[in-house]
Amino acid sequence: KAGVTQTPRYLIKTRGQQVTLSCSPISGHRSVSWYQQTPGQGLQFLFEYFSETQRNKGNFPGRFSGRQFSNSRSEMNVSTLELGDSALYLCASSFHQETQYFGPGTRLLVL
Amino acid sequence: AQSVAQPEDQVNVAEGNPLTVKCTYSVSGNPYLFWYVQYPNRGLQFLLKYITGDNLVKGSYGFEAEFNKSQTSFHLKKPSALVSDSALYFCAVRDSTSGTYKYIFGTGTRLKVLA
Fold this sequence. Notes:
Chain A contains no helices and eleven strands. Chain A is mainly β. Chain B is globular, with a radius of gyration of 14 Å. The interface between A and B is medium-sized, with 23 and 23 residues.
């Protein structure tokens, strides 16, 4: 089975712009979660989608949003980018909310 | 509140020696516990998990972890460390107190295996 894929792998944006990241889960997995990883804050949970519905949400501002499509692929959007949004964004998929399997991540740099 | 603690930012061990990476947790109910490893510029890779049953769990790459309910710990171990084990290790717990599930990760422990 193919693993979790994320695109793009690297991204450079400037402050004020917006960005969309994409995640394709493992085939058959309907739950997709997003995390932000920074050296200072570690791994922070953003949100989780299941069957196109947001099921859980972390403590991030409304600039961070996501969605999930009928094929379980998910996108994450960050609007009005700030310097502090520079991070590795990780997507994870799971089957029946057990083990999460992570993608390689998208490294976002905001200048 | 549910939480996971990894008390050591870094662990250094000589190649061939046994290694231990510590994790303690605080959850209500029965914990689902996980260990992940992250290599530079990569996502997290699943190593092993504890849900129920035998307290000693075996996982990938020769790693194992011991669940200790009385000490609320889930330490990761390997009998003989390899230089290639050098990476960032995360402990995680599944939190189900809100009625749905969230995964809470520790802050990570950097393992350095010295040749």
